[in-house]
Amino acid sequence: MDTDLFVAWFEETARLVRRDRDHLTRLDAAIGDADHGTNLDRGLTEVCKALTEWPPESPVQVLTSAGTALIRRVGGASGPLYGSVFRQMGKALRSPVTLAGFSAAFDEGVVAVERLGKAAPGDKTMVDALAPASRALALAVRDGVGVREAFEQAARAAAEGAKATIPMQARKGRASYLGERSIGHEDPGAASSALFMAALANVAS
Ligand code: ADP
Ligand code: MG
Ligand code: MG
């Protein structure tokens, strides 16, 4: 897995977030403050700009640059959380990047979010999409599955995890202020996390 694949991952995520921006914002309107789509679209536009202006020379540089841009430009709760996924993943990643190495580093990123957001699976947050994706990747590595198939399995797990937030009551973030009224809506951060994983599957060949 080379630098170009990591750049393509963020470019494809930017495309999917742009496409689904209004949908993500509508999800956030139901249980938050109606800014998740615009926040993330702004942040990923900045990520793409940074990757063009300062061409990264390694996968680690892509992750660090993307994470930093997300922290600077997304704002809200999700900016620092997404930023820490990719910055921590960058810290943990060893080159050359194998699927096993990717999986282990991604998991460190997910653990960083859980620690920073003090969120566990079931709290109705992005963790409910990211943690199943990480688990799916680890299982794919264990089973010796190819890269594309592994990323497709991770994308499916993330999408299912996002849908599974619908009946949950939020225990973290703005949505938790609604108590039981947060039940019945998909968590916007879980939905956008599923887009990050779908983008990965789209660019893997
Ligand atoms: P804000 O709520 O500040 O407006 P966003 O709308 O951009 O930020 O992001 C909201 C998303 O952030 C939520 O849908 C949820 O997935 C995620 N989130 C919020 N708080 C936490 C937390 N403590 N841990 C993990 N994820 C969280
Ligand atoms: Mg919001
Ligand atoms: Mg906000």
Word description of this protein:
The protein has 205 residues and is mainly alpha-helical. It has a single domain, classed as DhaL domain (Serine Threonine Protein Phosphatase 5, Tetratricopeptide repeat). Helices cover 70% and strands 0% of the residues. The chain has helices at residues 3-19, 21-31, 36-53, 59-73, 78-92, 99-117, 127-142, 147-163, 188-203. Helix 5 (78-92) packs antiparallel against helix 6 and helix 7 (127-142) runs antiparallel to helix 8. The longest helix is centred in the middle third of the chain and has 19 residues, at 99-117. It binds adenosine-5'-diphosphate and magnesium ion (2 copies). Adenosine-5'-diphosphate binds next to helix 3, helix 5 and helix 9.
Radius of gyration: 16 Å
The overall pLDDT average reads: 97
**Principal-axes shape call:** globular
CATH fold type: Serine Threonine Protein Phosphatase 5, Tetratricopeptide repeat
Structural class, please? Answer: mainly alpha
* Fraction of residues in helix: over 70%
Number of beta strands: 0
Q: Class in CATH?
A: Mainly Alpha
- Strand content is under 5%
Please count the helical segments. Answer: 9
Residue stretches low in confidence (pLDDT < 50, at least 5 long) are none
The main β sheet shows up as:
none
Spatial gap, N to C terminus: 10 Å
Which homologous superfamily in CATH is the superfamily? DhaL domain
CATH architecture: Alpha Horseshoe
Order of helices and strands: HHHHHHHHH
What count of structural domains? 1
